[in-house]
Amino acid sequence: MKRKTDSGSWRQTITFTLLSCLVGAGFLITANAEEKPKSKETSAKKPTVNAISKTIAPAEQTKAKASKPVFYPALTAREQTLEVALKMNTDADFVESTLQDVITYYSDRHKVPIVIQTKDLENNLGITPEEPIDAHFSEISLSDALLQILDPLDLTFIVDRGLIQVLSKESAARTFKTRVYPVADLCIIDEDYLVLGASIQNANLGDWKPVRLSTTLSNPKSEHGQKGSGGRGYFNVQGALGGGLGGGFGGGGGSLADYTNEPGGTISVVQQSHALVISQTWHAHNAIVELLTQLRQAQQDSE
């Protein structure tokens, strides 16, 4: 009897275990069946790639618009690196150090190429890179540090040919770059271009030719000279002594040959492109960019 009882108990245990497994499997199947609709529902709520693109697109467009170059040709990647380095803080603690040692120190510290134009220093100033330097300051930009050190020697620096070049002020004043500045946002009618050009010159941001050459741009289809219409009016390549609107030569007088040979920068209006074409030195262009930035900020604040 005992064996039969044990055998019956063993069978009951096996039966109970099998039933438990079947019940557990049923719960798993049911849970899995319920999970699938939830997964589909969850995935349906996720935005598609196109939806994400449509959401981000306006922001990207705004960013692209905001990063529009202030002038053309835009700075190269190398030029941008040099510009960033010139704005970085630096210091100086030089006692009877040579100019060459000072320049080498800054070049190594900021990891940018700074080159002394030795022949220019010798030919124009009669000095060499062995000139002694005494300088002590801290927490100023590399640009200001170089100007502070170079100015007493009648030297300066410019960014040209992918280098920061140390040279005489005389040579720097003869080294011009031509840039195209889009200014449609600052000019509504044709005369606004002349006012803007005069404002740049009157701000003493550089030396300008003392005479001006006027030229006429016109669009026979337009009579009001509104922005974008072509307009009708006189546009000047104007120097510091130039006057207002007018045709032919004026302001400083003289022939075209005299005008061409005069030192200084020029401003030309290209009305079809809503732009100013400016020929000036590197330092003057930097000042012009700053002025245009301030004018745009003032315009934005007044709206």
Total count of strands: 11
- Residues in helix, %: 40-55%
Cross-sheet strand order for the largest sheet: 2-5-4
Q: Helical element count?
A: 10
Tell me the structural class. alpha+beta
How far the N terminus sits from the C terminus, by CA atoms, comes to 105 Å
Low-pLDDT segments, ≥5 res: 1-5, 36-57, 59-65, 213-253
Taken from the alpha-carbon principal axes, the silhouette is globular
Biggest sheet descriptor: 3 strands, mixed
Order of helices and strands: HHHEHEHEHEEHEHEEEHEEH
Proportion of strand residues? 15-25%
Summed over residues and divided by their number, the pLDDT gives a mean of 76
Radius of gyration: 36 Å
Protein name: Curli production assembly/transport component CsgG
What would you say this structure looks like, in words?
It comes from Gimesia maris. This is Curli production assembly/transport component CsgG. The protein has 303 residues and is of the alpha+beta class. It is built from 10 helices and 11 strands. The protein has a 3-stranded mixed beta sheet with strand order 2-5-4. It has a 3-stranded antiparallel beta sheet with strand order 6-11-10. A hairpin with a 4-residue loop joins strand 10 and strand 11. It is globular, with a radius of gyration of 36 Å.
